[in-house]
TrEMBL record:
Broadest EC class assigned to this enzyme: hydrolase
Alphabetized SMART domains for the sequence: Ami_2
UniProt protein name: N-acetylmuramoyl-L-alanine amidase
Native source organism of the sequence: Erwinia aeris
Limits of the N-acetylmuramoyl-L-alanine amidase domain: 21-195
UniProt keywords, alphabetically: Cell wall biogenesis/degradation, Hydrolase
EC number(s) given by UniProt: 3.5.1.28
Reactions this protein catalyses: Hydrolyzes the link between N-acetylmuramoyl residues and L-amino acid residues in certain cell-wall glycopeptides
InterPro entries, A to Z: Amidase/PGRP_sf, Amidase_domain, NAMLAA_amidase_2
Amino acid sequence: MLFVNKNGLVDAERIIVRRFSTIERGKLDKVNGIIVHQTGGSTAESSFNSYKNTGANGAHFLIDKDGTIYQTASVFKITYHVGNIRSRCYMEKKCKPSEISKIKPLLNKYKQLSRLEQKKPYPERYPANFDSLGIEIVGKPVSGEDQDAIYEKINDAQNSSLKWLVAELSDTLKVSMTEIFRHPEVSYKVKTEAGTAQW
């Protein structure tokens, strides 16, 4: 169990707080899920530099190549890390016929489908920006382009830190382990992003 102070910052030996208010948006009332990402850059500093820009997007935690864990945003604040969400019932093949008729025409209209999904109560939809935490792992694509890019393998130190962090956040914030997702599972991202993440 982690100690989280009134500002949403974690006090733990394994976590270095390096908060960027530039990536924080509104109040995050309830954490329903955790989304695991890879940064697209080769260093933690490249992410930190982008986080300094006003209106930047980012996640709540970042795991460096050596396994160092940084907290970059309050767990009580929304950050824009998910993007447009997929249809959960469609992805899990659990849609009612009435839902399918609404969803099918929007399958290639990501924004419209995401808006429709976000109106659904959780857990009928995937966790979105407004009810999830994001964990970035430093790593970039090493070959290919766009959706077919291949991300570098997440190393043992990173996976060890990820496993610990996910377990602690899940326990502290009462997030089910079934609600931890790789970014491409819930949104429209490079298919291999966080593909070698283990928790």
